[in-house]
């Protein structure tokens, strides 16, 4: 046996050096330099600001799209109403012409003295009723005025009838010519006789 010490493993100095070397990377990963942390925070804030701006822009575009759809729907409805109104005007013009023909047929029947037993009178009445039926199918309605208060919006007063009854004052007592309407539009006002109250002379 010689006097040299045993060298089976690394020396204490070598072990301490290896421990320090292995601990150094761990310490570097646990703590970043302040400049790098500030750059990360700045990038995070920038991305968050871009996200907020993008969401705001999406909301603006969504509202603009909704307004556009609303305007388009309103325009479509206006166009539909205008088309229907023009169709009603044309339908009313055609109806007014046909009603004049009905008036002519009514005059022909009145000249017969109310006798509709003859074939000619029956034929005239059939044509007259057919025209009125076709008009009613298109939405044309006859205005009911007899017995109601006189309304200048639906009738024209062509004659006056004196009445001693105050409750009949300004009421329609007879229809000279029938009036017709289409929906809320008066195609032809009725011509009527209106009662006028006059108090009886005192004896």
TrEMBL record:
Similarity comment: Belongs to the GrpE family.
The residue stretches assigned to a coiled coil in this entry are none
Encoding gene (name): grpE
Listed Low complexity bias regions:
11-32
Checking PANTHER family in the record gives: GRPE PROTEIN, GRPE PROTEIN HOMOLOG, MITOCHONDRIAL
Q: Name one GO cellular component term.
A: cytoplasm
How is this protein organized at the quaternary level? Homodimer.
SUPFAM superfamilies xrefs: Coiled-coil domain of nucleotide exchange factor GrpE, Head domain of nucleotide exchange factor GrpE
Function, as annotated: Participates actively in the response to hyperosmotic and heat shock by preventing the aggregation of stress-denatured proteins, in association with DnaK and GrpE. It is the nucleotide exchange factor for DnaK and may function as a thermosensor. Unfolded proteins bind initially to DnaJ; upon interaction with the DnaJ-bound protein, DnaK hydrolyzes its bound ATP, resulting in the formation of a stable complex. GrpE releases ADP from DnaK; ATP binding to DnaK triggers the release of the substrate protein, thus completing the reaction cycle.
UniProt cross-references to InterPro entries, sorted A to Z: GrpE, GrpE_CC, GrpE_head
* MF GO annotations: adenyl-nucleotide exchange factor activity; protein homodimerization activity; protein-folding chaperone binding; unfolded protein binding
Organism of origin: Archangium violaceum Cb vi76
What name has this protein been given in UniProt?
Answer: Protein GrpE
Keyword annotations from UniProtKB, A to Z: Chaperone, Cytoplasm, Stress response
Q: One matching Pfam family, short form?
A: GrpE
Give the span(s) annotated as Disordered: 1-43
Biological-process GO terms, alphabetical? protein folding
Q: Where in the cell is it found?
A: Cytoplasm
